[in-house]
Amino acid sequence: MNLFDLKGKAALVTGGNGGIGLGMARGLAAAGARVAIAGRDAKKNAAAAQELGNAVHLECDLKDAAACRAMVEETAKRLGRLDILVNNAGINIRKTPQEYSIDEWREVLDTNLTSAFVAAQAAYPHMKRAGAGKIVNIGSMMSIFGAAFVAPYGASKGGIVQLTRALACAWARDRIQVNAVLPGWIDTALTKRARQDVAGLNERVLARTPAGRWGEPEDLAGIAVFLSSKASDFITGTAIPVDGGYSSSG
Ligand code: NDP
Prior knowledge:
CATH topology: Rossmann fold
Oligomer: single chain
Structural class: alpha/beta
Mean pLDDT: 97
CATH architecture: 3-Layer(aba) Sandwich
Strand content: 5-15%
Bound molecules: NADPH dihydro-nicotinamide-adenine-dinucleotide phosphate
């Protein structure tokens, strides 16, 4: 199916060394793309890169805007081009709103939202020059719903959707499509911690998810390939849930 063929394309996945990012990176690599992954943990980066077949791996703290720009430039240099950017890296700090320090607020916003903007800005000239590009931003169910323990996380994930729409409008005529993916509850390091911290979460997720199970990182591979391929060339500015029906269920 050459509609989904990514041979000859170069992709950068932030937070691609584990969880959802690695699930998407596996999908992109299987569709033929050359992949670069970025994260803070050099060991995790090296292991994931090896699994992906000697992918480029970059050690980078995305809270630092200069490092974030350098990550994009280094990817374009090492892969010779940049066609696909997946802004996936993200963290959560769970507290009631009144408990957050301003530094904790900034840590979540800088990691989850500002880094996506900065990386997209840095990727733009490469995609514009190539005459096409794909940007995939990772939102959350917290892009749609509220919860008591996610004030900065929810703000960052709501912001991701609006950032996606703004970039989509601005760059559509450059043939750069920008879309968001809203994962439901996916079994990763991030949610393993949540399951430990929040009593009853596991049962609530299973009860509300029509598919009756947690998602796996591999469940995100298909949407990553679709939104990175020419199959989605007339789709831009959308926010697509990949959630086993969670957001459709009352
Ligand atoms: P993981 O904790 O498994 O992975 C997070 C990834 O982000 C890691 O690769 C981590 O690498 C990287 N990362 C975190 N902070 C930074 C930073 N400052 N600089 C560079 N890299 C960083 O989480 P998930 O796979 O679950 O989450 C991935 C994305 O999906 C996030 O945006 C999350 O909000 C979103 N999401 C997850 C859901 C779920 O149910 N799991 C549901 C909805 C959305 P390293 O530690 O090496 O820096």
